[in-house]
Write a structure and sequence with these properties.
Layout: H1 16-19, H2 21-25, E1 31-32, H3 44-54, H4 66-76, E2 88-91, H5 94-105, E3 111-114, H6 120-128, E4 132-135, E5 139-141, E6 144-146, H7 149-158, E7 161-167, H8 179-192, E8 195-199, H9 220-223, E9 226-230, H10 233-236, E10 244-248, H11 251-263, H12 271-280, H13 283-310, E11 315-317, E12 324-328, H14 336-345, E13 349-350, E14 352-353, E15 367-371, H15 376-393
Parallel strand pairs: 1-13, 3-4, 3-7, 7-8, 8-9
Antiparallel strand pairs: 2-10, 5-6, 9-10, 11-12, 12-15, 14-15
Helix pairs in contact: 3-12, 4-12, 5-6, 5-11, 7-8, 13-15
Length: 396
């Protein structure tokens, strides 16, 4: 079993997180804790599966075996979600999946709804496909985001919403939506003829005391209007292999989605994605996931202690899922640009800018997202750099 606490250099590996430091932060010296992949090793049993396939000297065209479909079916059953082979459609990744969903389930000029703050591609997909983007901002209450259902339904009615892009669990906050909340959202969408595309890529990284409920698992009626998008990419650090899939129970929705897939000739996973998925969605994968969650919780606890001791003005939104933490700096900085400058120049940290999650609502000002999928020494380095930056704010 691999060591999660020995730092691994990613220099020279074409890592997006490291190669884009100069372009995004104006410095190659920042410690990058932004893009949502891990600075932790991909599990050894997945690497072994890839190495074994590489022992064969031909990497030609391939078809997807039944074992890949069965791995997805078995894995989703952990969430009491019954999936059949006929419902599975492959994509290159989840973001690619909802870009195609916008094209499949709405027409140019029609309205697509998102809840802000949200993963930035949710904001880009409707606009780049010529749709009208509308927002139903989440409400921050007692340290967690809540849904204003009246405002949500009013937006659906007044803006004639056709498609709802749903982040479940929520990114950037790590909020796990509860059954009653899902039921209310689904009821609104059913009554108003809205198709739901549910991004559930963080669903396997849910902490104890919380439970992920797939939107499509609520009932047959809800499944009939829902397209679920998922991937082992986040849980097993496989982002570079471009693995994604959609689960679509409604034959008409599936036909519309396949029409878009056909238009851009997306039909199968790549060869290594297939082998990686099968290895990930296994008993070994379950054990790895459980170990990983323990590592992340320890990192989250350490981050909370640091801010409690040195920067109590910063509110740490403890995630119920994922290794991403949403930080509220608004009591410390009333100018977002000054916050960004302080983090880069003094803390020497590269974090996700909260404004990129906010859309028109502006709710991202004063917020940053930090990625804690790192070894303990790297986290300690980040906290040491933050402590030095605190001394700049409050010189003795």
């Amino acid at each position: 079993m691999q060591d999660l606490n020995t730092p691994i250099s990613r220099e020279g590996t074409c890592s997006e997180k490291y190669e884009l430091r100069q372009a995004l932060f104006g410095s190659d010296e920042v410690l990058p804790m932004w893009v949502a992949d891990m600075d932790l090793p991909t599990p050894d049993f997945i690497l072994q599966a890839l190495k074994e396939r590489l022992e064969h000297p031909i990497l030609g065209y391939s078809i997807t075996p039944d074992s890949v479909y069965q791995a997805i079916i078995d894995w989703q059953s952990q969430h009491d979600y019954r999936v059949t082979k006929s419902q599975i459609v492959f994509t290159h990744n989840v973001a690619n999946g909802f870009f195609m969903a916008v094209e499949a389930f709405s027409e140019p000029g029609e309205t697509v709804l998102v809840q802000t703050p949200v993963y930035p591609p949710f904001l880009k997909a409707p606009k780049q496909n010529g749709r009208r983007l509308v927002e139903a901002p989440l409400q921050l209450d007692s340290g967690h985001y809540q849904i204003d259902f009246d405002a949500f339904e009013k937006t659906v009615e007044e803006q004639q919403v056709k498609l709802f892009l749903f982040c479940h669990p929520q990114n950037p906050s790590g909020r796990v939506w509860q059954g009653a909340e899902l039921e209310r959202l689904a009821d609104i969408c059913l009554r108003h003829g809205v198709t739901i595309v549910s991004d559930e890529i963080h669903s396997d990284l849910v902490y104890a005391g919380n439970r992920h409920i797939p939107m499509a698992s609520l009932s047959e009626r809800v499944a009939n209007i829902t397209v679920t998008l998922n991937s082992p990419g986040k849980t097993f650090n496989l982002g570079g292999l471009q693995i994604g899939y959609a689960l679509i129970a409604n034959p008409d929705l599936k036909a519309a989605y396949l029409k878009v897939c056909d238009a851009v000739s997306i039909h199968e996973l790549n060869l290594f994605a297939m082998f990686a998925l099968q290895a990930a969605y296994s008993k070994q994968g379950q054990n790895w996931r459980n170990r990983l969650l323990g590592h992340f919780e320890a990192n989250i606890n350490q981050l909370e202690r640091f801010f409690g001791d040195y920067l109590p003005q910063v509110r740490v939104m403890r995630p119920q899922a994922s290794y991403l933490v949403w930080l509220d700096f608004r009591e410390l900085f009333d100018d977002h640009q000054q916050l960004k400058k302080w983090l880069v120049e003094h803390a020497k940290l590269g974090l996700n800018d909260g404004e990129s999650f906010a859309g028109k609502s502006g709710d991202g000002q004063g917020f940053m997202r930090i990625n804690l999928a790192v070894s303990k020494p790297v986290l300690q380095q980040a906290l040491n750099q933050l402590k030095a930056a605190v001394d700049v704010l409050h010189p003795s």
